[in-house]
Specification:
- The chain has 297 residues and is an all-alpha fold.
- The chain folds into 2 domains: 2-14 and 39-148, no CATH class; 151-252.
- Helix content is 81%, strand content 0%.
- The protein has helices spanning 2-22, 29-37, 53-63, 66-74, 76-82, 86-113, 121-169, 174-182, 188-202, 207-218, 221-236, 241-296.
- Helix 3 (53-63) packs across helix 6.
- The chain starts with a helix and ends with a helix.
Length: 297
């Protein structure tokens, strides 16, 4: 019964993949036009290589479906920041979910070949529990990687703001100060900033428009605030050197607080194994006495 159920689930999943691949859901016109104008990853991550066979088999058939688009839209900012293609992310989720589905039956089959009999209900319930966990794990890992890259970008952004403030103090204009700031550093955050300013220049826009668009693409609120401050200075002539210096100082203090919180969290996690070891030791000592009391009853 369990084997037939697993075979039926696998067959149904295969039919669903085949149908969605042969007849994908039409992409809305607005989304298609937005995809044409979407910025491609530049220095935020290594260039995405040619799609592997797993991506073409497991990810691309889901790209045109409604559920696949909803999944990708929910993590589009993180994908943009990490440099992972939507099809690759979907392929990872499907692959890990299939691994969770087949791991328990494969293990039970190997044990059965060795002469160890296991109830059929055990692999069924393991598969039911591991499939959703496997499907969600790549998304959690993606968010963790994106959060780490955002911390790196904020650290570089604070240095960028310091250089811009120094340029403004030297009598440079806002636009000149922004270009001086992006040329002062190396690494993928400064490459992203340079690319944003270059695209704004090619489109005939103000440089802070490109910075604001980059902040939206990467999900970094501080960059959008910087774009708003620069736009205010460029259009109304407001004094922003002091505010930029204060913003850079606040970002460094926030980064320091995040590092201290991470260190304290790591220290607390180090005490967990000791607590578990003590609980196991107490259970080891108390189990014989508890067993004697229960047998006496």
């Amino acid at each position: 019964m369990t084997a037939a159920l697993l075979v039926g689930l696998a067959f149904g999943a295969g039919v669903l993949l085949l149908v969605t691949g042969l007849r994908p859901t039409p992409v809305p016109l607005g989304q298609a036009l937005a995809d044409l104008d979407r910025r491609r990853p530049t220095g935020s991550a290594p260039a995405v290589a040619r799609a592997s066979w797993a991506t073409r088999l497991l990810g691309e058939p889901w790209m045109g479906s409604g559920p696949g688009r909803r999944i990708v839209d929910g993590v589009a900012t993180d994908l943009r920041l990490v440099g992972t293609s939507p099809a690759e992310h979907l392929a990872q989720r499907v692959a890990v979910a299939l691994t969770g589905l087949l791991w328990a039956p494969a293990t039970v089959a190997i044990m059965a070949a060795g002469g160890v009999r296991v109830p059929v209900e055990l692999p069924l319930w393991c598969s039911v529990g591991l499939v959703p966990i496997g499907f969600l794990y790549p998304s959690l890992r993606l968010r963790s990687r994106a959060a780490a890259r955002r911390r790196t970008f904020r650290h570089a952004l604070s240095a960028f703001l310091d250089v811009v403030a120094v340029s403004l103090a030297g009598g440079r204009g806002v636009e000149s100060a922004l270009y001086d700031g992006v040329e002062a550093g190396q690494g993928w955050p400064f490459a992203e900033l340079r690319q944003a300013l270059l695209e704004a220049r090619l489109h005939g826009e103000a440089p802070w428009a490109g910075l604001g668009r980059l902040g939206t693409d990467l999900g970094i609120a501080e960059l959008r605030e910087l774009a708003a401050s620069a736009a205010l200075a460029g259009s109304e002539g407001a004094r922003v050197r002091a505010s930029l210096s204060a913003k850079a100082r606040a970002m460094r203090q926030r980064s320091l607080a995040d590092v201290e919180a991470a260190a304290q969290s790591a220290s607390e996690r180090m005490s967990l194994p000791v607590v578990l070891l003590m609980l196991g030791f107490i259970a080891f000592l108390g189990f014989p006495a508890l067993q004697q009391v229960l047998q006496g009853l």
